[in-house]
Backbone:
C-alpha cells in the first residue's frame, strides 16, 4: 500500500490499482433522526475518529448531512454545547448542509474528485454522499477520496515509467535485432554472390574447355608433323611435295590455334569483367547488349546440362551507368531460378532474356515456358525463406535478395506475371543511369 494511501481508505485491503469507482472505497453508514438529541451524533463521531459525518433523517428520509467539521464547529462556539447537545438535531438543521453532493456508486474516482472540488470553497472538504441502489445513502470522506486519487496518480505514474522503461528496453532489443538481421542479410547477399560467382566460374571453365581442347589438338598435330619434317631435312630426303604438305598443315594448325586461343581469350576477358563486377559493388558505364551476352554465356552450360535452351535478345547501343555486378546477380538468380524450378525433371524448356528500350529506362524480361507459379504463391515469392523446394536445395532467399537489389541498389522495380502451366515472366525495369 502506498504511504500516501489511508490505512482504511480501501475496503478489504485493496490496492490502489484495483480502485475504479467510488463504490470501491470505504463508505460509512451512520445516520441519526431529527428527533434524537445532538449528543448522540457527538458520541457517534467520538467513537470513530475517521467517521466524516452523520446522515440526518426525518421519518426515514434524508434531510441533511451533519459533517464532523460543522458539528464540532458549532459546539466550540460560546455556549454551543449548552445550546445544542441536549436538544433535538432538528434545531441544528439551519446550520447543516441540506442538499449535500450525492454521487452514484459507479462514478470514477477522478470524476468524483472533480465534482467534489467544484463546490463552493467552504464546502470543498465537506463529506459527500454515495447513492447505491437498494441501500441507504453512505458517507464518503473527501480527504480520503483525495488521498486515493493521489495514490492512483502515483500508481499511474509508476506504471507509465515502467511502461516507458519497457518500451525503451524493447526498442533497444529491436535495434539490436535489426542490426543483426541486416548483418545476416549482408552475409546472405555475399553468400548468394559467391554462389553466382561459382556458377560463373563453372560455366566459363566449361566453355573454355572446347577452344583450349581444339588448340591443344592442333598444337600436338603440328608438333608431330614438325618432328617428321625435321627428320626428312636431317636425312636429306625432303621433297617438294613434303614441304608443300608441311606448310599446308602448319597453316591450318596455326589458324586453328589462333582462332581458338582468341576465343578462349575472349571468354576469359568476359569472365574477368563479369567476375570483377559481381565481386565488387562499383558503378560503371557499360553497353547492355555485350554485357548480357557475356553473362548468358557463363550460364548456358548449366542450361544445356539440364536440357534447356537459353537465349538473349537485346538491341545494341543501350548505354548504361549502373552497377553491373548487382544486375548480373539479379539476372543470374532469375535465370537459375527458372532453370531449377520451372521444369519437371527430364523436361526441356526455353528460357529467354529480352530487353525493351524505353528511353530513360530499360525493361529486362526473363521468361520461361515452364510450369508457372500457383496464384496463391505469387504474393509471397519475395518473402524471405519462402520456397516450395525446401527439400531440394531451395533456400527461399534468391528472390528476396533480387527484390532488395532491384529496389535498393539499382533503383528499379520488379514485377512477376505467371499462370499455372503457362510459364512465368519477371520484368525488371531499371533507369539507364542510376542516380
Residues:
Amino acid at each position: 500500500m502506498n504511504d500516501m494511501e489511508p490505512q482504511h481508505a480501501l475496503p478489504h485491503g485493496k490496492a490502489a490499482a484495483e480502485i475504479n469507482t467510488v463504490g470501491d472505497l470505504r463508505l460509512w453508514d451512520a445516520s441519526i433522526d431529527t428527533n434524537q438529541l445532538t449528543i448522540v451524533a457527538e458520541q457517534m463521531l467520538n467513537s470513530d475518529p475517521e467517521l466524516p459525518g452523520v446522515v440526518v433523517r426525518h421519518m426515514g428520509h434524508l434531510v441533511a448531512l451533519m459533517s464532523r467539521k460543522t458539528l464540532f464547529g458549532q459546539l466550540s462556539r460560546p455556549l454551543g454545547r449548552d445550546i445544542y447537545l441536549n436538544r433535538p438535531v432538528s434545531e441544528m438543521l439551519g446550520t447543516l448542509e441540506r442538499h449535500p453532493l450525492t454521487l452514484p456508486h459507479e462514478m470514477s474516482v477522478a470524476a468524483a474528485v472533480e465534482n467534489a472540488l467544484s463546490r463552493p470553497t467552504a464546502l470543498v472538504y465537506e463529506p459527500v454522499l454515495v447513492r447505491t441502489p437498494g441501500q441507504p445513502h453512505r458517507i464518503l470522506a473527501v480527504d480520503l477520496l483525495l488521498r486515493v486519487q493521489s495514490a492512483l496518480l502515483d500508481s499511474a505514474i509508476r506504471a507509465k515509467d515502467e511502461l516507458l522503461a519497457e518500451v525503451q528496453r524493447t526498442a533497444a532489443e529491436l535495434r539490436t535485432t535489426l542490426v543483426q538481421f541486416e548483418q545476416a542479410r549482408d552475409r546472405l547477399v555475399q553468400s548468394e554472390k559467391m554462389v553466382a560467382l561459382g556458377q560463373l566460374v563453372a560455366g566459363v571453365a566449361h566453355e573454355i574447355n572446347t577452344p583450349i581442347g581444339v588448340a591443344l589438338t592442333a598444337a600436338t598435330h603440328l608438333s608431330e608433323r614438325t618432328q617428321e619434317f625435321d627428320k626428312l631435312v636431317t636425312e636429306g630426303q625432303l621433297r617438294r611435295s613434303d614441304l608443300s604438305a608441311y606448310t599446308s598443315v602448319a597453316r591450318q594448325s596455326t589458324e586453328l590455334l589462333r582462332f581458338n586461343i582468341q576465343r578462349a581469350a575472349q571468354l576469359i576477358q568476359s569472365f574477368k569483367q563479369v567476375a570483377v563486377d559481381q565481386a565488387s559493388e562499383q558503378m560503371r558505364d557499360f553497353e547492355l547488349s555485350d554485357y548480357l551476352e557475356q553473362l548468358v554465356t557463363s550460364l548456358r552450360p548449366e542450361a544445356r546440362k539440364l536440357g534447356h535452351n537459353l537465349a538473349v535478345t537485346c538491341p545494341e547501343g543501350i548505354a548504361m551507368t549502373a552497377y553491373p555486378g548487382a544486375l548480373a546477380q539479379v539476372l543470374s538468380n532469375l535465370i537459375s531460378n527458372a532453370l531449377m524450378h520451372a521444369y519437371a525433371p527430364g523436361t526441356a524448356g526455353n528460357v529467354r532474356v529480352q530487353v525493351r528500350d524505353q528511353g530513360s529506362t530499360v525493361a529486362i524480361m526473363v521468361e520461361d515456358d515452364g510450369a508457372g507459379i500457383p496464384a496463391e504463391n505469387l504474393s509471397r515469392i519475395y518473402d524471405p525463406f519462402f520456397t516450395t523446394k525446401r527439400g531440394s536445395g531451395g533456400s527461399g532467399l534468391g528472390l528476396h535478395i533480387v527484390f532488395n537489389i532491384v529496389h535498393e541498389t539499382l533503383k528499379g522495380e520488379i514485377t512477376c506475371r505467371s499462370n499455372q502451366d503457362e510459364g512465368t515472366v519477371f520484368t525488371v525495369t531499371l533507369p539507364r543511369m542510376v542516380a
Observations:
- The two ends are 64 Å apart (CA to CA).
- The longest strand covers residues 350-357.
- The chain has ten helices and 13 strands.
